[in-house]
């Protein structure tokens, strides 16, 4: 490190699992390797619209065939040029079942991918796949020659991409260091060196900011807001995300929530705006459906479920629970327990007794994904598909037979099946409108709020968090 | 001695095999790692396919035989989460746990022993009256509380020392104090008791009558006799490699083996959990063996009585 | 660890010190009993002693520092937590989980260990050897792993915490029972009783058990403090007593999230653990000095 060079330390909540972009689906890994590799496409930081990046142009020549044009001035860190064959290899390895990529499901609709020239690529899907572009925003491009020349353990620990930062060092469990690439095709990054530290304790991340040990800390909570704001050296950065918090019901199980009226009663008994105000210090946005306004397929006319205790009691009486109701709230320590317990408290006021059952995350998933639907009555979650599309949210959450779904309705199934089988935007919107109205009527889940991610940073860090929560250090600047 | 060693080595191998088998079964009963690795929304058939590729849908006996075959070769499989061979992953983290444990034990000894001896030689005096309650209180404090308090006061309030990571000597301070706390108190108590014991002996009175400062005599004999109990504590501290160090490493984000174990358990990373337990057990068994040999050397009566079985 | 050295304990060659025989326990032991009695009474009488319902949430009174007055005029002596629940009341109710687990765990592991160790020592031979090898194996498995496996299979909670502790602590008792059963005096009793025609079970119960019991009691009282800490550790990791039921361990876990914003949440539960464990340790040491100083 030469003097005068700017260095940034970022405190992450956990370790990167591996730095090979195809071998895991882990936020901490992505936060780091996002800076080492280039992705095929990019979202505009302000509008979230999909824009050209490594791919400069694209066209769906038929509903199942897409042609892409690749930039010709991108180079990998070892000097070799990035060509269409590298994009083909990046996708092909994910699609290879033997490679066992956790990202397979995001690209499984792709039947074949072929580099038709040094800078042209053809992707053929097995059915019309409207979410293809959104998924390609998350495709990091590896060097075909590099991954073929080195075995997997080496590729995991010595990542080589074309991004604004090159890999410098990694002490597993502790930190990863990256150095800027001066000749990066989008321009030299302002920050010369970035170190990502693993700091699982929130209080420690805050303390690191205060002591100057770190200049950016992820994963702060609303309770840390006061501490950050009180310190003149620090600033609080809040960014809207595409994550939506929700309360899901077991509509297929043996419990009382088989009855739609009971579900509607719970929906009206919960007071989401109050929780936002008090628990989240206002750092969240109310939603009336499980999509944010930025999601494709969002219908602004869906009314949602306003807090109304009288209506809740009336619905409870109608469904035969006038004298009270006991429900099991299944959860896991990974979720914010303040919210779970606060919801429990709110439901008590409507005469609903809630018993909280917590399992560690692996067991929790096993239980709620079991086809027996005997996991309890309520569960809280946050959903994001990293695709800003209704297909990635309501399809897996509510389609009959999906492992996440404890709900079934043929009209809903047809609507979301229609929504994903055409590229025509207008037709898709109409289908999702139908689907969302079915959900509004049946209440398989209560949308709570759109999550706002909170970051603490040094006052001299210039950065705006993006909706896709990508930590792109090349967009950051440190200085007066 | 040769028969003794052979017997113990055989026992060690047996213990290792039994422990690995128990861990193998327990870990597989605890759930599916693949569901934890994939994005939300991944359909069931994709998850099933991934499990198949990893060999996780094979019958338990087949998986076990593969595991044993690998164990014999020194291959403990590949981590599902970190996508790297499990045994090297664990061995890479081991030195950090050793560093922490050695630092903690060193601290406990360097502070606890003089503290206890000083309290014992000044029995009933002001120092002793102050030290003994402090020691008793120290023994009653759970390590995770001590750690949190240290973070709260030293890092969060005063910004004096870092409370995460490793690499610089400053990062070692808080975690080793936390880990040392209990051992320190125990060593202090024990050395105090040992001093009190020695002070009663006839030769002390004789030395006093002769004009030799009793303190020096006591200290020389105490240290010799305290060696065995201290060795006991050292052996127990090695057991801490997988016990107390786990929570300390977690709270302070120390990149050691204990924290790796907790994260692997939570992620159902079978191979890494197996590797950690096997390595940890091997260390424990080895330490026990070494301790027993040293006991035999230090106290001839044990060796003469025949090898304890 | 060889059984011989485990039984030798902290005292150097020369044997245990002579002590003046007194009735009852020395001051420290009585102080220990006193602390435990106070904690136990508070736990049993919690509904009468605690000022408020430990589960009552007042979101408007979140994270009040100790001694402040809430929106309804009441004083929160130890402050409130992230959901506006009274920390003092939760602390008092939390004593229930700690003491319940500690006493049950000691009882279960003690009985199991006593039975296994006694049997192994009585029959000697290969039964004893196999059992003691089994003891080594159980001692080699990390406590945390068993805990999570049991929780994954059965679900978390107080009962399962007791189960996990019972399954992992019995070797302590078994070792002592084994060594004691092998030791001289019991051996003579046993030979004599058998010669006189007693069945094995009767001889074990009438002659060996009384010899072994004092040492087991000593181990048990020494273990109480440790069980309190382990219960807290498991709850701290989310595996023990489940929220919203308070336990000192899960209160500490909560406090961990609020280190910068609510220092009292991490301080008082730890203090409670410390005081109770101190009481248990004082009692345990006094009992040991009185009954069997050789146990370590």
Q: How many helices of chain C in DSSP terms?
A: 11
Number-wise, the strands of chain A total 19
Order of helices and strands of chain C: HHHEEHHHHHHHH
The oligomerization state is heterotrimer
Total strands of chain C: 2
The major beta sheet of chain A can be summarized as:
11 strands, mixed
As a percent range, the share of strand residues of chain A is: 15-25%
Give the class of chain C from helix and strand content and strand pairing: mainly alpha
Helices of chain A, by number, come to 16
User: How large, in whole angstroms, is the Cα Rg of chain A?
Assistant: 24 Å
Q: Greatest chain-chain interface?
A: B-C, 63 and 52 residues
What value does the Rg of chain C take, in angstroms?
22 Å
Structure description:
The complex is a heterotrimer of chains A (480), B (309) and C (296). With 480 residues, chain A is α+β, with helices and mostly antiparallel strands. Helix content of chain A is 29%, strand content 25%. Chain A has 16 helices and 19 strands. Chain A has helices spanning 27-33, 84-95, 104-107, 132-136, 144-149, 152-157, 202-211, 225-230, 260-269, 272-278, 309-318, 337-348, 361-368, 390-398, 410-419, 425-442, and strands spanning 7-12, 42-43, 50-51, 55-62, 65-70, 110-117, 120-125, 165-171, 175-180, 193-198, 216-220, 234-249, 284-286, 325-331, 352-358, 378-383, 445-458, 461-462, 477-478. Chain A starts with 6 loop residues before the first strand and ends with a strand. Chain B is mainly α and 309 residues long. Chain C has 11 helices and 2 strands; from the N terminus they run αααββαααααααα. Chain C has helices spanning 3-8, 27-44, 46-49, 87-123, 125-140, 143-154, 158-182, 184-195, 200-236, 248-257, 263-291; strands spanning 68-69, 75-76. Classes of the chains: A alpha+beta (480), B mainly alpha (309), C mainly alpha (296). Chains in contact: A-B, A-C, B-C. Chains B and C meet through helix 1, helix 6, helix 7, helix 8 and helix 10 of B and helix 1, helix 5, helix 6, helix 9 and helix 10 of C.
Short summary:
Chain A is α+β, with helices and mostly antiparallel strands and 480 residues long. Chain A has 16 helices and 19 strands. The model of chain A has no long low-confidence stretch (mean pLDDT 93).
Give the topology, please.
The complex is a heterotrimer of chains A (480), B (309) and C (296).
Chain A: E1 7-12, H1 27-33, E2 42-43, E3 50-51, E4 55-62, E5 65-70, H2 84-95, H3 104-107, E6 110-117, E7 120-125, H4 132-136, H5 144-149, H6 152-157, E8 165-171, E9 175-180, E10 193-198, H7 202-211, E11 216-220, H8 225-230, E12 234-249, H9 260-269, H10 272-278, E13 284-286, H11 309-318, E14 325-331, H12 337-348, E15 352-358, H13 361-368, E16 378-383, H14 390-398, H15 410-419, H16 425-442, E17 445-458, E18 461-462, E19 477-478
Parallel strand pairs in A: 1-10, 1-11, 14-15, 14-16
Antiparallel strand pairs in A: 2-3, 4-5, 5-7, 6-7, 8-9, 9-10, 11-17, 12-16, 12-17, 13-17, 18-19
Chain B: H1 2-29, H2 34-37, H3 44-53, H4 60-73, H5 86-121, H6 126-140, H7 143-157, H8 169-199, H9 202-210, H10 214-239, H11 244-251, H12 257-266, H13 270-298, H14 300-304
Chain C: H1 3-8, H2 27-44, H3 46-49, E1 68-69, E2 75-76, H4 87-123, H5 125-140, H6 143-154, H7 158-182, H8 184-195, H9 200-236, H10 248-257, H11 263-291
Antiparallel strand pairs in C: 1-2
Helix pairs in contact in C: 2-4, 2-11, 4-5, 4-7, 4-9, 5-7, 6-7, 7-9, 8-9, 9-10, 9-11, 10-11
């Amino acid at each position: 490190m030469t003097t005068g060079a700017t260095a940034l330390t970022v405190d992450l909540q956990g370790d990167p699992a591996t730095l090979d972009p195809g071998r895991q689906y882990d936020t901490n890994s992505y936060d780091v390797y996002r800076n080492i590799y280039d992705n095929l496409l990019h979202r505009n930081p302000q509008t979230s619209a999909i824009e050209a990046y490594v791919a400069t142009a694209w066209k769906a020549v038929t509903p199942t065939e897409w042609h892409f044009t690749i930039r010709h001035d991108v180079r990998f860190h070892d000097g070799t040029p990035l060509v269409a064959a590298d994009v083909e290899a990046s996708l092909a390895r994910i699609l290879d079942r033997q490679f066992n990529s956790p990202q397979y499901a995001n690209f499984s609709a792709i039947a074949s991918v072929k580099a038709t020239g040094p800078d042209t690529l053809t992707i053929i899907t097995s059915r019309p796949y409207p979410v293809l572009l959104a998924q390609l925003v998350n495709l990091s491009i590896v060097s075909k020659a590099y991954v073929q020349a080195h075995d997997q353990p080496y590729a995991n620990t010595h990542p080589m991409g074309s991004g604004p930062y090159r890999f410098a060092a990694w002490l597993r469990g502790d930190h990863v260091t990256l150095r800027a690439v001066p000749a990066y095709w989008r321009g030299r990054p302002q920050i010369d060196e970035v170190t990502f530290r693993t700091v699982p304790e929130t209080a420690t991340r805050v303390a690191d900011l205060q002591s100057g040990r770190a200049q950016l800390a992820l994963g702060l909570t609303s309770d840390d807001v006061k501490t950050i704001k009180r310190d003149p050296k620090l600033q609080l950065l809040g960014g809207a995300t595409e994550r939506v918090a929700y309360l899901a019901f077991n509509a297929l199980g043996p419990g009382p929530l088989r009855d739609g009226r009971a579900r509607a009663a719970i929906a009206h008994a919960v007071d989401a705006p109050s929780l936002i105000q008090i628990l989240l210090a206002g750092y969240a946005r109310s939603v009336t459906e499980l999509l944010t306004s930025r999601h494709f397929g969002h219908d602004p006319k869906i009314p949602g479920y306003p807090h109304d205790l009288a209506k809740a009691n009336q619905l409870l009486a109608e469904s035969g629970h006038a004298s009270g109701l006991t429900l099991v709230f299944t959860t896991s320590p990974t979720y914010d327990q303040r919210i779970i317990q606060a919801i429990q408290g709110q439901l008590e006021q409507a005469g609903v007794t809630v018993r909280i059952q917590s399992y560690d995350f692996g067991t929790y998933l096993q239980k709620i994904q079991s086809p027996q639907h005997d996991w309890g009555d309520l569960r809280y979650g946050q959903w994001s598909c990293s695709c800003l599309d209704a297909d990635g949210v309501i399809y897996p959450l509510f389609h009959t037979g999906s492992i996440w779904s404890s709900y079934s309705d043929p009209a809903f199934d047809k609507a979301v099946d229609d929504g994903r089988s055409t590229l025509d935007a207008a037709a898709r919107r109409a289908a999702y409108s139908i689907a969302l109205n079915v959900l509004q009527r049946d209440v398989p889940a209560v949308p709570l709020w759109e999550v706002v991610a909170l970051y603490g940073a040094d006052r001299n860090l210039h950065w705006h968090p993006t909706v896709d929560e990508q930590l792109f250090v090349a967009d950051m600047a440190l200085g007066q | 001695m040769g028969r003794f060693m052979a017997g113990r080595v055989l026992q060690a191998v047996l213990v290792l095999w039994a422990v690995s088998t128990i861990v193998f079964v327990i870990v597989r009963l605890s759930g599916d790692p693949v569901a934890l690795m994939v994005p939300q929304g991944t359909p069931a058939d994709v998850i099933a396919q991934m499990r198949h590729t990893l060999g996780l849908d094979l019958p338990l006996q087949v998986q076990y035989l593969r595991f044993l075959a690998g164990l014999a070769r020194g291959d403990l499989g590949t981590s599902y989460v970190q996508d790297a061979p499990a045994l090297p992953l664990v061995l890479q983290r081991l030195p950090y746990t050793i560093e922490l444990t050695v630092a903690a034990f060193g601290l406990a000894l360097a502070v606890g022993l003089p503290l206890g001896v000083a309290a014992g030689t000044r029995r009933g005096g002001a120092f002793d009256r102050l030290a003994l309650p402090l020691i008793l209180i120290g023994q009653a404090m759970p390590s995770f509380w001590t750690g949190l308090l240290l973070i709260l006061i030293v890092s969060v309030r005063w910004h004096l020392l870092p409370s995460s990571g490793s690499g610089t000597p400053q990062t070692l301070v808080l975690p080793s104090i936390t880990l040392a706390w209990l051992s320190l108190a125990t060593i202090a108590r024990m050395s105090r008791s040992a001093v009190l014991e020695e002070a009663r002996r006839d030769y002390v009175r004789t030395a006093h009558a002769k004009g030799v400062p009793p303190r020096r005599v006591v200290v020389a004999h105490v240290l010799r006799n305290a060696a065995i109990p201290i060795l006991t504590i050292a052996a127990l501290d090695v057991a801490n490699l997988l016990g107390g160090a786990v929570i300390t490493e977690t709270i302070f984000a120390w990149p050691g083996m204990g924290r790796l174990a907790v994260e692997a358990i939570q992620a159902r990373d079978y191979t890494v959990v197996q590797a950690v337990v096997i390595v940890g057990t091997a260390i424990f068994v080895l330490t026990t063996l070494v301790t027993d040999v040293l006991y035999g050397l230090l106290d001839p009566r044990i060796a003469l009585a025949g090898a304890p079985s | 660890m060889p059984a011989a050295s485990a039984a030798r304990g902290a005292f150097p060659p020369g044997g245990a010190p002579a002590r003046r025989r007194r009735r009852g326990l020395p001051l420290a032991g009585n102080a220990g009993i006193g602390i435990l009695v106070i904690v136990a009474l508070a736990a049993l009488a919690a509904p009468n002693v605690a000022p408020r319902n430990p589960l009552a949430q007042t979101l408007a009174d979140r994270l009040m520092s100790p001694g402040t007055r809430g929106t309804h005029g009441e004083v929160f002596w130890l402050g409130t937590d992230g959901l506006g629940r009274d920390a003092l009341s939760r602390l008092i109710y939390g004593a229930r989980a700690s003491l319940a687990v500690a006493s049950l765990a000691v009882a279960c592991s003690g009985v199991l260990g006593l039975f296994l160790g006694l049997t192994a020592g009585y029959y000697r031979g290969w039964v004893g050897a196999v059992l003691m090898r089994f003891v080594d194996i159980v001692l080699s498995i990390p406590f945390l792993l068993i805990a999570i496996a049991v929780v994954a299979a059965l679900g978390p909670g107080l009962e399962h915490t007791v189960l996990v502790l019972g399954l992992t602590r019995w070797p302590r008792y078994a070792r002592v029972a084994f060594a004691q059963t092998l030791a001289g005096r019991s051996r003579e009793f046993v030979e004599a009783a058998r010669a006189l025609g007693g069945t094995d079970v009767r001889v074990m119960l009438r002659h060996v058990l009384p010899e072994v019991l004092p040492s087991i009691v000593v181990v048990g009282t020494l273990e109480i403090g440790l069980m309190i800490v382990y219960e807290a550790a498991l709850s701290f990791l989310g595996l023990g007593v489940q929220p919203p039921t308070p336990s000192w361990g899960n209160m500490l876990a909560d406090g961990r999230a609020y280190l910068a914003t609510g220092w009292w949440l991490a301080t008082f539960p730890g203090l409670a653990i410390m005081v109770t464990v101190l009481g248990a340790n004082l009692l345990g040491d006094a009992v040991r000095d009185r009954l069997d100083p050789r146990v370590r």
